[in-house]
Amino acid sequence: xxxxxLFQPTLTGYRKPAGIARPWRQSAQALVAFVGGALxxxxxxxxxxxxxxxxxxxxxxxVAIALxxxxxxxxxxxxxGPVKGPAVLFAGTAAFWCxxxxxxxxxxxxxxxxxxxxxxxxxxxxxxxxxIFIRPIEIAALVALAP
Amino acid sequence: MSTQLQAARRxxxxxxxxxxxxxxxxxxxxxxxxxxxxxxxxxxxxxxEDFDRAAEEAADGLEADPQAIDLLYxxxxxxxxRGRFEQAEAAILAALEQDADDxxxxxxxxxxxxxxxxxRKADRVLAAAAQNDPDSGYVLAGRQSLAYLRGRNREARRxxxxxxxxxxxxxxxxxxxxxxxxxxxxxxxxxxxFGEAVRQEPSVDVYADDARRAxxxxxxxxxxxxxxxxxTGVAGSWIAAMVIIFGLRAAGQETxxxxxxAVWLLLCLWSWxxxxxxxxxxx
Lengths: 147, 283
Hints:
The complex is a heterodimer.
Chain A: H1 26-51, H2 56-78, H3 85-114, H4 125-145
Helix pairs in contact in A: 1-2, 1-3, 1-4, 2-3
Chain B: H1 3-13, H2 17-25, H3 29-32, H4 35-47, H5 51-64, H6 69-81, H7 85-98, H8 103-115, H9 119-132, H10 137-149, H11 153-166, H12 171-183, H13 187-200, H14 205-219, H15 224-232, H16 234-250, H17 254-282
Helix pairs in contact in B: 1-2, 1-4, 2-4, 4-5, 4-6, 5-6, 6-7, 6-8, 7-8, 8-9, 8-10, 9-10, 10-11, 11-12, 12-13, 13-14, 16-17
């Protein structure tokens, strides 16, 4: 082996996944994005990043992406362009999912591959609550902003 | 080497760690404290998934012989399974300091790195191992795991089949192919794959749990909508839903488009709510 750097420690100060609770399935988070919208997705995605043991920057990335997408979707819905309603919802959800997969995809695979329990994931009850309580706030804001 | 030690070694080789521990329990105090006995006890404890005691055995053995490569390897594996990756890395690096070309040690280091999510460095370590022994089964198994973790499913599948070509009883390969089957909604085929893993290693509970779960999914109709959803995948089902719903709408079939949307939404909600309930019931 010629590369001496290969044997330099990499995991010093390694932060273990939080261990408070199991993370949520990626597909459940996609559904939260679809049913609950950007704010619900931002909350669930950020908490899940913590559960997977990712650094805070990952959670910030998810929140930033969600808020940006929310702004774009609002502009599309409220604007006079041809893209409206369901098309925005579908495209927005797909974009949320891609961004979340970009941030959490590999850590989720690593977690799932090495977890030796029958059911490694938690039921996304928080996602259901977020959909019930946060989506109406979003819709109310949308109605208030509509010309 | 005493008869008990020989028996314990043999039991570990054939995957009977409980019998190995019984054989080791019959040793007298002096013999039980030797490096060889500690090593065998440590590996047997790994086999029964008692990682805390396995790490203790390795650490005790290393007090007497800090350079023992086998014990450093054992300590690394035990610490890795306990989720103490920093300690696992320190132990395997101490072993590699003595023999930097040992393929098994390099692959163990790659495994620790993979578990900690350091996939790039794991790749470099596996490349170094492959330089030393391109035909090693350890390297092939490491590459299979790495390909899966990177989301390169096709490569992981190919490497699993390569593993099976070398060893038709490879538990690792059967489990990986079973996971792929399950992810693609082929529960019956997954149950067969996981069942093969159980036949090879009946003492590992998680293999039996996987097989039972896959069998339930194949037989219980409540799982079937989810399996259908899995078959197309998240992205695939999303695209298919968009094409159908908006295609029907563009063709002026507003009602059909609405029905398609409702069916798809129900399918999504079903796959969100029902599987966790079934899992809980299974527990």
